[in-house]
Amino acid sequence: MANTKKREPSHTTISRTLGVAIVTGEFEPGSVLPGEIEIAESYSVSRSVVREALRMLSARGLIESKPKIGTRVRARELWNLLDPTLLEWMFEAAPPPHFVRSLFELRLIVEPAAAELAARKKTARQLASMGHALEEMAKHTLSKPEGQLADQEFHAAILEATDNEMLVSLSASIGAAVRWTTYFKFRNNKKPHDPIEEHRALFEAIADGDGERARAVTIKLIEQAERDTQRVLEQ
């Protein structure tokens, strides 16, 4: 059977390659990227393709273009660090420990409160979505892409169940954080802690309407995930 997988567009490939180089420090803040002509020649593409790739990087806050200077990497504090694609690029290699710490601190601020709200406000449909995601996680395990996607959907369903549009707007970012930290752990550690029981305990707390227990279980879940990730970084 023929391979029907679509080839990645050239501008996406260039954007990802340059993006990874920026977030991993190959191009430091303040440094100037190669010019459009040089990039176009190195990838055998037109300058319009390069411009589209640079536009994608600019939209994520990574670069800015100025006349007579060129395209410069912006200061790190100006990057859109919660952009799901940027989070993916961060975990292409080994992300800096301070970035991982910041990411888990954010999760500890947002997710326990969200779980407590979800326990009070969830609907039957949202609870069913969590239950289905939990079943898929158990079936495929977090070592496989299907299980990792189910994990992401589980956490997204919790945010949706808060019935708070501000929290729901964080779903893509929180989901990406969950997905890529899990991917990173399993890519670099063949037998990390399996958090399925903690996820099941969280589901049961939300189903029971026990917000305090849902908050406590979420904190335990995130703290364990952070320990696992930091352990991999130290290897």
TrEMBL record:
HTH gntR-type domain: which residues? 8-76
This protein's record includes keyword DNA-binding: yes
Which SMART domains does the protein's record reference? FCD, HTH_GNTR
Q: Which domain of life is it from?
A: Bacteria
Q: Which Gene3D superfamilies match?
A: GntR ligand-binding domain-like (1.20.120.530), Winged helix-like DNA-binding domain superfamily/Winged helix DNA-binding domain (1.10.10.10)
Ordered alphabetically, the record's keywords are: DNA-binding, Transcription, Transcription regulation
Q: Listed GO molecular functions?
A: DNA binding; DNA-binding transcription factor activity
**Record's Pfam families?**
FCD, GntR
**CDD domains named in the record:** WHTH_GntR (cd07377)
Claim: Transcription is one of the keywords in the record: yes
**PANTHER family on file:** GNTR FAMILY REGULATORY PROTEIN (PTHR43537:SF44), TRANSCRIPTIONAL REGULATOR, GNTR FAMILY (PTHR43537)
The name this protein goes by in its record: FCD domain-containing protein
- Name its species: Qipengyuania algicida
